[in-house]
Design a protein that fits this description.
Structural class: alpha/beta
CATH topology: Rossmann fold
CATH class: Alpha Beta
Number of helices: 13
Distance between the termini: 64 Å
CATH superfamily: P-loop containing nucleotide triphosphate hydrolases
CATH architecture: 3-Layer(aba) Sandwich
Number of domains: 1
Order of helices and strands: HEHEHEHHEHHHEHHHEHH
Radius of gyration: 22 Å
Strand order of the largest sheet: 1-6-5-2-4-3
Number of strands: 6
Helix content: 40-55%
Bound molecules: adenosine-5'-triphosphate, magnesium ion
Largest sheet: 6 strands, mixed
């Protein structure tokens, strides 16, 4: 067993899909931990990453120029919620918002499918986290065809090219966002069917986890292979150098967190953030304010 944690860039490299090579899900193992088995050191590593993230977020926030969008997609019980909670534990809540995308509402369905996502886009200086996203439109909607039929899209527009068209529309939308300064990173938490089974069982066995259990989630397991095909096709068509997918091993939660935290740190580092420079005029204002405060009578 190795026990030396690689650099953040080295750690995430095997999972970063940029569309330059053929992507096959079967090359990615949900239980992979790069030979690391050090739960305790993982915690120290995660803490250090969270600290770096927090320092860079302060600059992102101060600059109000770039925005960051982190998208999380996964099968049920892959650990989306807990990854989001752990990885973002150190960031300033004022500069960060989590948006959850469940089944669309009646109002959502009376618009195009990107409408509800647009309303949740992070503003400049902010980190936006999507817990599920518009990618459901090529996942659950593809696996359960009747959902597409209920979207009220004019019939002549729905052809067998619909999924390819959605990939193309989503990619162009992301390119548009990127050109506006919204940096996008997408995470597929890759849990195995067997690990999901174990996690569902623990939701039944442990009373404090009962609330998480859903009969429907168990029924969705019948469609596992269809989902995996949909994920593979989606990642193949929508991963680019600028908007990569990270296929994160998700059978070991501590490793999932390390990879996601490292990817976020690398993303923020790549922006070379710094606090806005103080110009002469502003410096004079600050000096005046200092004098004013110092002279104030107590
Ligand atoms: P939890 O961890 O609490 O189970 P969750 O994200 O699975 O979180 P649920 O309320 O269980 O939340 O499930 C939301 C459901 O909404 C998912 O099954 C998802 O596939 C579905 N969904 C999301 N977006 C769409 C969409 N655009 N069209 C149809 N279904 C959608
Ligand atoms: Mg669920």
């Amino acid at each position: 067993m190795k026990n030396k944690i690689p650099t953040a860039a080295g750690l995430i490299e095997p999972y970063c899909i940029t569309g330059t090579r053929k992507f096959r899900l079967k090359d990615h193992h949900p239980a992979d931990t790069q030979g690391l088995s050090l739960k305790t050191e993982a915690q120290a590593y995660l803490d250090a990453s969270v600290k770096k993230m927090s320092d860079m977020q302060a600059k992102l926030y101060a600059q109000e120029s770039w925005a960051v969008l982190l998208i999380f997609q996964a099968m049920d019980a892959a650990g989306k919620d807990s990854v989001i909670r752990h990885v973002m534990s150190g960031v300033n809540p004022q500069g960060c918002r989590v948006s959850t995308f469940k089944q669309p509402s009646a109002e959502d369905l009376s618009h195009d499918y990107l409408w509800r996502a647009s309303r949740e886009m992070p503003a400049r200086g902010q980190i936006g986290i999507f817990n599920r996203s518009y990618y459901e439109e090529v996942l659950v909607v593809r696996v359960h065809r009747q959902i597409l039929d209920n979207e009220r899209i004019p019939r002549p527009l729905i052809t067998k090219r619909v999924w390819k068209q959605r990939f193309s529309d989503i990619s162009q939308y992301e390119q548009y966002l990127r050109r506006n300064g919204i940096v996008i990173r997408k995470f597929f938490l890759n849990v195995s069917r067997e690990e999901q089974r174990k996690r569902f069982l623990s939701r039944l066995d442990e009373p404090e986890k009962n609330w998480k259990f859903s009969q429907n989630d168990v029924r969705e397991r019948e469609h596992w292979d269809d989902y995996m095909k949909a994920y593979e096709d989606m990642i193949s068509h929508t991963a680019t150098e600028d908007t990569p997918w990270f296929v994160v091993p998700a059978d070991q939660k501590w490793f999932t967190r390390m990879v996601v935290a490292s990817a976020v740190v690398e993303t923020l580092s790549g922006l070379n953030l710094s606090f806005p420079k103080v110009g002469d005029h502003r410096r004079k204002e600050l000096e005046e304010a200092r004098t004013f405060l110092l002279n104030e009578k107590g």
